[in-house]
Design brief:
The chain is of the alpha/beta class and 496 residues long. Helix content is 45%, strand content 14%. It binds one RNA strand of 77 nucleotides through helix 1, helix 5, strand 9, helix 7 and strand 12.
RNA sequence: GGCGGUGUACCCAAGUGGCCCAAGGGGACGGAUUGCAAAUCCGUUAUUCGCGGGUUCGAAUCCCGCCGCCGCCUCCA
C-alpha cells in the first residue's frame, strides 16, 4: 500500500515518493489579497490542508509553503491591466498595503475558522522583491528573458517545454490569442517578469531596469526556490491556474535552475453555483463570512435570488467540501449544504456518545475482539481510501459505517470503557487530526450563565412532565426552541 | 477552434476490468421506540451507471462515435 496522487503533469495516478523521504516540500498557490475569501478558496485550501494532514499522519515531514500575492496580479489582459490591489485601494481611498493587511487578516480568520493548519511559511511577494529580481537577472543571463523599455519579458520560444503542463503549443497560443499583443513583446505568448512603473504607480521598487514591480508568476518561482529548493515534491493550486500561471512558473524555474521544478502537480477543481464556476470576477462568489455569519438581507446572487437563508458553521463547510473528491467539481446549493450539515452533525453526535462512554462505561469488562477487529478494519479501509489520491469521500463513508457499529456497542451495554477509549482514539484521529473537523462548541462562553438559566428551565420542564403537565413542558421546550435552544431527552437526561 | 475535465438514484457523491444486481450522506416513505418531539434503530427508495456501437469469459470502469455540461486559452482557489 502506498500513496498515490493524480499528477496533472502526466495526467496519471502515480505512486508518490518524495525526493528526500521523509521530507516533503510542498507549495500551494495562496490568495491574491484584494477581497474576502469565498467558497472556492475554502475548497482549495481545505483540500490541500487534508493532504498535508494526511501526509504528516503517514509519517512524512512536510514543509508546507503557501504564498500571499500582494502585488503584481493584474486585472486585465496579460501584462496590460491594472494591479487588482491597486484598484481596490483606489476604491477605498487607502494605501494598497492597507488593503493587503485587511484581506490577509480576513483570509487567516476564515481559514482558522475552517480549521485549516497554517502553512509553515507564508511568504509575501512584496517581501521578496530582491529574490525575484535575482531570478530575472539569472533568466536574462541564460538567454531566456529580454528587457524592453524598462520591462522584462520571458521568451517562451527559449523553452521548448513551454505548454507541457496544460497541453498547449506555443504556435496555437498565438493563433487563439484573444488579446491585443503588447508591442514590447517579441512573441505574443511572452509574459512579463518585471513591469515598468508609470510615474503615478504607487507600488514600485527600484530594479536594474528602473522603477517597477514584479510580474505575477515570478513570485512563486522565486519564493518556492528560496524555501523549498529547486525541485518541489508537490505543487498545488486551482485548476484555473494551470494555464498560464503554473505553466509560466515551470518555464521560469526550469530555465533558471536547469532542473525539474515540480514532481507532482496537484490541481483542485472548482466550486460551481448552478453549474457555473464561482468566481469573484463573475460576481457569484459566496463569501465565507456570509456563510458563517450571514447577512441581514440573506445571501443572494446578482439577480437577487436567495442562495442561503441561514448560516452554517465552518465544520459543515469542511464536511461538504470533503464529501467530494478534490479533483472533481463541487456544485454548491443550499440543499446540498444543508444535507452536509445533517451528515456532519450525525458524525459529531456519534463521536460525542463514544466520548461519553469512554468516560463512563464500566471498567470491569474484558476487551472485545469484535471491537478491535472493527477498528482495525475501519482503519485499513480509510487508509486505503486516502492512499488512492486522497479519497476523503470514501474515508468519510467508512467513518459513517464505523459509527453505525459504535452505536451498536453503545446499545449492547456489555462493552467496557477501554474498548470505547480505543474507539474514541481511532475516531478522533480520523475526524479531528486527519480530516480536521472541529465543530463549534455547543455552549457559548458567557461563563456558563446562559447554561445555568437553561438548566433551570429544563429542570422546571422535567417537574412539569412528572406532574403530567405536558402542556407546560411543551411550552417551555417550544419557547426555548424559538430562541434557538433545542432540548433533547436522552437516557442520560436532558441535553441542549 | 484548441487543450483539459466531466455526465452514477429525488439531491450531493464514491467507485477506473470480476468482491458492483454500484459505497456513504441528505431527502422521502413504512415500521420500532417515545406522553409529544428530537435523537436513535430496522426496512424500502439505480439489475443500473448520458446515448449508440465495439473489445473481453466478464465493463459504470478499456476502445470508437455521438450528445450534454464545466474549466482554461485575459484575471480568478
Amino acid at each position: 500500500m502506498s500513496q498515490k496522487f493524480t499528477n496533472t503533469l502526466t495526467r496519471r495516478r502515480e505512486e508518490f515518493v518524495p525526493l528526500n523521504p521523509p521530507r516533503v516540500g510542498m507549495y500551494v498557490c495562496g490568495p491574491t489579497v484584494y477581497g474576502h475569501s469565498h467558497l472556492g478558496h475554502a475548497k482549495s485550501y481545505i483540500s490541500f490542508d487534508v493532504i498535508v494532514r494526511w501526509l504528516r499522519a503517514s509519517g512524512y515531514d512536510v514543509n508546507y509553503v503557501q504564498n500571499i500575492t500582494d502585488v503584481g496580479h493584474l486585472t486585465d489582459d496579460a501584462d496590460e491591466g491594472e494591479d487588482k490591489i491597486v484598484v481596490e485601494a483606489r476604491k477605498r481611498g487607502l494605501h494598497p498595503m492597507a488593503v493587503v493587511e485587511t484581506f490577509i487578516r480576513s483570509y487567516l480568520e476564515d481559514m482558522d475558522a475552517l480549521n485549516i493548519l497554517r502553512a509553515d511559511i507564508m511568504p509575501r511577494a512584496t517581501g521578496h522583491i530582491p529574490e525575484q529580481i535575482a531570478m530575472i537577472q539569472c533568466l536574462m543571463a541564460r538567454g531566456h528573458a529580454y528587457e524592453n523599455n524598462g520591462s522584462v519579458y520571458f521568451s517562451v520560444g527559449s523553452f521548448p517545454d513551454y505548454g507541457k503542463l496544460a497541453g498547449r503549443k506555443v504556435e496555437e497560443l498565438e493563433a487563439g490569442a484573444r488579446v491585443e499583443v503588447s508591442e514590447e513583446k517579441r512573441h505574443p505568448a511572452d509574459f512579463a517578469l518585471w513591469k515598468r512603473a508609470e510615474p503615478t504607480h504607487i507600488m514600485r521598487w527600484p530594479s536594474p531596469w528602473g522603477d517597477g514591480f514584479p510580474g505575477w508568476h515570478i513570485e512563486c518561482s522565486a519564493m518556492s526556490q528560496k524555501y523549498l529548493g529547486d525541485t518541489l515534491d508537490i505543487h498545488g493550486g486551482g485548476m484555473e491556474n494551470k494555464f498560464p500561471h503554473h505553466e509560466c512558473e515551470i518555464a521560469q524555474s526550469e530555465c533558471a535552475t536547469g532542473r525539474q521544478f515540480v514532481r507532482f502537480w496537484l490541481h483542485n477543481n472548482m466550486v460551481t453555483l448552478n453549474g457555473q464556476k464561482m468566481g469573484k470576477s463573475l460576481g457569484n462568489a459566496i463569501s465565507l463570512k456570509d456563510v458563517f455569519h450571514g447577512r441581514t438581507d440573506g445571501v443572494r446572487d446578482r439577480n437577487g435570488a436567495l442562495l442561503l437563508d441561514r448560516t452554517y458553521e465552518p465544520a459543515v463547510v469542511r464536511h461538504f467540501v470533503l464529501t467530494s473528491h478534490y479533483g472533481a467539481p463541487l456544485d454548491f446549493s443550499a440543499e446540498a449544504l444543508h444535507g452536509a450539515e445533517s451528515g456532519s452533525y450525525k458524525l459529531r453526535d456519534a463521536l460525542a456518545a463514544v466520548a461519553d462512554a469512554a468516560a463512563r462505561a464500566p471498567t470491569d469488562r474484558p476487551a472485545r475482539d469484535v471491537v478491535r477487529t472493527a477498528l482495525t478494519e475501519f482503519d485499513a479501509r480509510a487508509t486505503t481510501a486516502m492512499h488512492e489520491d486522497v479519497n476523503t469521500a470514501a474515508a468519510i463513508a467508512s467513518l459513517f459505517d464505523l459509527t453505525r457499529q459504535t452505536g451498536e456497542w453503545l446499545r449492547a451495554g456489555d462493552i467496557g470503557r477501554a474498548d470505547f477509549a480505543a474507539a474514541l482514539s481511532t475516531l478522533h484521529r480520523w475526524t479531528a487530526d486527519i480530516l480536521g473537523f472541529a465543530w463549534r462548541s455547543e455552549k457559548a462562553s458567557d461563563n456558563g450563565r446562559a447554561d445555568a438559566v437553561i438548566k433551570i428551565l429544563a429542570d422546571l420542564r422535567l417537574e412539569a412532565r412528572r406532574d403530567k403537565n405536558f402542556a407546560l413542558g411543551d411550552e417551555i421546550r417550544k419557547r426555548l426552541a424559538a430562541a434557538g435552544i433545542e432540548l433533547r431527552d436522552t437516557p442520560q437526561g436532558t441535553t441542549w
